[in-house]
């Protein structure tokens, strides 16, 4: 999850407040002409604020004002789109790069695929992945992670697993993020057995499972009525030197709730303060629902 944006100041603050580039004066433009990195700083701030439309305006202003722009500026603008899930604008910026004679790189495509992933456009994400070789670009693990996640969110768990299994062929080493995305894809597709299988083979691939991996596996078991397995995974986490977070506990409580196991749901809820995990609305609602069903 992205870090929360800080309160912007200076020129960035004006851009955020006004929502347009009208606050960018000739003095700022001249400083950008002398040092284009200053424009990168502004674009990065807009990305942090998740304001892709203003980032696009800044790119347009740079072109109109004869401020040098390069692939970094466009990458940051596309990243702003990715952070907000604005896949349409991300693709628009990507396609427009050729008009200003800027060649996309691996970061460009990874950011665009991430935008498609967050916008739940798995077909477009895969299309971008497929055309990268034609552009002379080699996808890296970040690119593949985004593509797997996009497939998972689109309910395409088979394709997600296919990408994971094909990584050795393209000499890309899967990370904990890769496996977590694949496990999440299985969870969303109701494939709890495959989710557990992926979790179990991670050590063989010299990849350590993390809280996200376990949380997705717990959720996969819970959604399919396997509440005992879900609780077993929670108990397994300390042995793996992992601390269950609220997402893991919520998945466990929800697993118990679905099967009317109200005692276990309440036990998990009561255990959260002892483990220094703050219960939230999801935790409480799931526990209440479990009691109602029990």
Automatic annotation (TrEMBL):
The organism sits in which domain of life?
Answer: Eukaryota
Q: What is this protein called?
A: Pentatricopeptide repeat-containing protein-mitochondrial domain-containing protein
UniProt keyword Repeat present? yes
Q: Which UniProt keywords apply?
A: Repeat
List, for all copies, the residue spans of the domain called Pentatricopeptide repeat-containing protein-mitochondrial.
Answer: 42-163
Which windows of the sequence hold PPR repeats?
Answer: 70-104, 105-139, 210-244, 245-279
The record's section on InterPro entries has: PPR_rpt (IPR002885), TPR-like_helical_dom_sf (IPR011990), TPR_mt (IPR057027)
Does the record bear Repeat in its keywords? yes
């Amino acid at each position: 999850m992205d870090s929360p944006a800080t309160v912007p100041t200076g020129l960035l603050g004006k851009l955020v407040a006004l929502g347009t580039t009208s606050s960018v004066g000739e003095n700022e433009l001249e400083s950008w002409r002398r040092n284009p990195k200053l424009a990168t700083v502004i674009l990065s701030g807009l990305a942090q604020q998740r304001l892709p439309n203003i980032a696009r305006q800044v790119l347009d202003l740079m072109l109109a004002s004869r401020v040098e722009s390069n692939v970094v500026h466009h990458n940051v603008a596309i990243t702003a789109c990715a952070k907000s899930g604005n896949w349409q604008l991300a693709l628009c910026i990507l396609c427009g790069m050729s008009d200003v004679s800027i060649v996309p790189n691996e970061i460009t495509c990874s950011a665009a695929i991430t935008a498609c992933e967050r916008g739940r456009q798995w077909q477009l994400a895969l299309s971008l992945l497929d055309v990268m070789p034609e552009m002379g670009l080699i996808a890296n693990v970040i690119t593949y992670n985004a593509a797997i996640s996009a497939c998972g969110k689109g309910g395409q768990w088979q394709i997600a697993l296919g990408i994971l299994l094909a990584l050795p062929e393209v000499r890309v080493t899967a990370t904990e993020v890769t496996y977590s995305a694949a496990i999440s894809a299985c969870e969303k597709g109701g494939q709890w057995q495959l989710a557990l299988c992926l979790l179990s083979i991670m050590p063989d691939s010299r990849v350590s499972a993390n809280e996200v991996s376990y949380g997705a596996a717990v959720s996969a078991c819970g959604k399919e009525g396997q509440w005992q397995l879900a609780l077993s995974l929670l108990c397994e986490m300390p042995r793996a030197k992992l601390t269950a977070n609220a997402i893991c506990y919520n998945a466990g409580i929800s697993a118990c709730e679905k099967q009317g196991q109200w005692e276990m749901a309440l036990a998990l809820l009561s255990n959260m303060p002892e483990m220094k995990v703050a219960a939230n609305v999801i935790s409480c609602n799931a526990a209440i629902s479990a009691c109602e069903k029990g």
